[in-house]
Amino acid sequence: MITGGDTVLVARGPVPAAIERFLGRWSARWPHIRVASGAEDADAFSPWVPGAMQLDELSGHVLVARDEDMVAGWDDSGYVLDPRGEGPFSLAYEPAGWQSLKAMALEDPYVRTGFGYEPYEIFLVGAGLQMVTVVAPEEGPFRHAVVDALTACLNEASAQGRTDC
Question: Model's pTM, two decimal places?
Answer without folding.
Answer: 0.87
